[in-house]
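Please think about what follows:
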Amino acid sequence: MTATRRRLLAVIVSLVCAAGSLPAQEKACDRNCLKGLAHQVLVSMTKHDSAVLPLARWYILTENNRPIAPKMSVLWRTITSFKEPAAGQYVMDVPAGQVFVMATVLEGTMPSLLWAG
């Protein structure tokens, strides 16, 4: 996985998992909630469907320095499966509402290590 793809996913996961992107009643997102959001991102990528994500009303996602919808990004089109991350592969900042995850993903038949946050 290229550095560009890792940065792209870092932006996506930050957008999804940031406390500001959650509805007001869900602002208190504990560790399980953050882990669930990271899992949602991974699942949505394998299904090539970003519509299930709780994205902020307004956000900017770029690829190669151009705005793009998640479903049109390379990662949403190429990741076909992932290995469920182990407990030590998550780094969570509960007060900030952010989660970082390291996961093994497959892009077709090519394994890659994804570090996203």
Q: What stands out?
A: The helical segments are 3-17, 31-47, 74-78. The beta strands are 62-63, 66-67, 79-82, 90-93, 98-107, 110-116.
